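Session log. Operator J.P. requested a structure for one protein chain; no other inputs attached. Running the standard single-chain path with token output.
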Amino acid sequence: MEYNTQRRRLPLPEYGRSVQNMVDYALTIEDRDERQRCAETIVNIMEGMFPSLRDMPDFKRKLWDHLAVMADFKLDIDYPYEVVKPEELEVKPEVIPYASSNIRYRHYGRILGEMIEKAVELEDEEERKQLVDLIAVRMKKSFIGWNKDGVEDQKILDDLKEYSKGKIDLKLEDLNMGPSLATGSQFRNTGGHRRQSNGQRKQYNNQRKKH
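Structure written below.
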């Protein structure tokens, strides 16, 4: 018994080995007119395999492209479209440039450093203070996402000072803490609700019994 893993690899596996065998047979046909009719029949079969894609732009053209690929571009027929060329399939995508600068603290990310630089450059004191408050809240959220045990607010201010090279040096009373920055426990995985105390649960159960 011969397994598919022992056979040659299919150029386009989505069409299956049966269609590939038809293409291989078409390559052996010597009569050009008969070879042309065979190729057109194969494309019609390929189209019937994906009826939901018929409304796609250039669907027919893509089928003829796929036929050329499965024939290793050796099928001598009159293609109704200008099919893809082998060299066009070998074009490599452009390399995406990545920033090479190091991230000081990975749990804060790269964007945070850029935000701090922006805050340092702001001249309007009120706008600067608002941005620093938002940055501090964001830093604490990021830190607690990395360390579930929480973090002291002073640690956030120390990191903020280090990031800004001493240009943002605040005390706790200078910062608008807000409920989101007041305690690290609010960022832990509690499902967004405070747990009920034993007394609260007992009171709730007693009320249910009365009703």
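Operator note: The chain has two domains: 4-89, 110-187.
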